[in-house]
Amino acid sequence: MTTTDQYKSIYHFYRDEEVLAWRTIGLAARISLEMGLHLWDPPYETFRNPHGRERTNRLFWCIYCLDRRWSFGTGLPFGIQEDDIDPSLPEPNDSHPYLLTSMITYSRIGSKILKTSSGAERAEREDTAFLTYQVQQWYSSLDPEVRVDDDQDLVVVGLSPARNRLRILNRLRKNQLLMLIHRKALFTSTSIAADPRGAKTAVDLARATITMLERIRKTSEIYQSHAVCFNYFLYSALTVILLAAYHAKARFHEYCREEFNMALNLMGGISAKSNVARKLWQIIKHLKVMGPELGILPYMETQQDNPRRECEGHTESNDKTLSWSQSQTQLYGGMGADSGQMLPGAREVSGLGNLMTHTDIPMFTNNYIVDGNLLCSELTDLFQAIDPTRYEQIPPHLLDQSRSQPSTSTFPMPDHFSRTVRNVF
């Protein structure tokens, strides 16, 4: 059963349904815990022979790595917690080029980084330095056949497409982990001023990631044939650029403009129902509300269009937008994620009226579609609105007037709504 669930989760992932992949591997994770695969000495007879024990051990670590990967991509909790794994449980006997054991190490480092950056633990400079060291050590320990060094081409002639793809993915994983370590420096203007080196490091890694993806797209078919694998890294890099431009306009806006435009070009391959498209739409929607409230985007239009919705074979375009109270019922509490049917008492359960909730639940509904052209257009408008040179062209009295007037946003913010963009990204 766990093997079947593992394959199903990979199938959902390649269909650009990462949340379903996360759900499926979560089921496999719970079954593996129930069977005692996470223990060196299971509480009951599970394995008939040493060969079977080794196979199930490999299966458990495969589930562990997939659970981490889908959680990294969706931002949802792990199905298998590190504390639940028996410390004496050995890693599988891997053969050259040691792909599984390298992914186990990568997953463990990623778990530590996320735990630190989420605020569960305060990250000191020593922690940042040690995590950076661990990432560098992990990458240098990889077999030369499955990594891209600075002086090497991204696509090596003579290697199979699968091996070239693995080399590129490992380099992107390295950038991703290092970017997550330093991204916390971008959460506020104060944090950027306190750690300018860390902020620039995160931005430079994001720029390098987008440039690498653009080079792959132009020079080989690897990107187009496996775009779903690369979109996670594209999304992470793009959000770092938006964070930097949002909080340090003068320093990072022009610095990142070229890579931002590259990212928009790369987004042409993103599925309308993908998790990446939905999360980007949520960022746009939240920033359209918070920007004028915080005085960071005083001239940005706050009238929010709705992405296209497709329900029971009926498509509704953007020019026929839903009211926010309707979308709250349909997206946040009223629509079954898989069936597309209204849940009983959903309107009463949501009880949100016209208040905008700080949640990403819409991206979990299969019938929620984001128009790709509208998404790129909105991202472009957002980046232009951040442009610090635009403010110089606005008369001062209009600037003061726009800041003093109450917000006319379609999405009024309740008192408990977070006034920080940290949780948005």
From TrEMBL:
Q: Which InterPro entries match?
A: Fungal_SecMet_Regulators, XnlR_reg_dom
Task: Enumerate the spans annotated as Xylanolytic transcriptional activator regulatory domain.
Answer: 21-96
Molecular function per GO: DNA-binding transcription factor activity, RNA polymerase II-specific; RNA polymerase II cis-regulatory region sequence-specific DNA binding; zinc ion binding
- This protein's record includes keyword Transmembrane: yes
Which cellular components does GO assign to this protein? nucleus
Keyword set, alphabetical order: Membrane, Nucleus, Transcription, Transcription regulation, Transmembrane, Transmembrane helix
TM spans (from-to): 230-248
Domain of life from the UniProt record: Eukaryota
Which SMART domains does the UniProt record give?
Fungal_trans
Biological process annotations from GO: DNA-templated transcription; positive regulation of transcription from RNA polymerase II promoter by galactose
Provide the protein name: Xylanolytic transcriptional activator regulatory domain-containing protein
Question: Which species does this protein come from?
Answer: Cladophialophora chaetospira
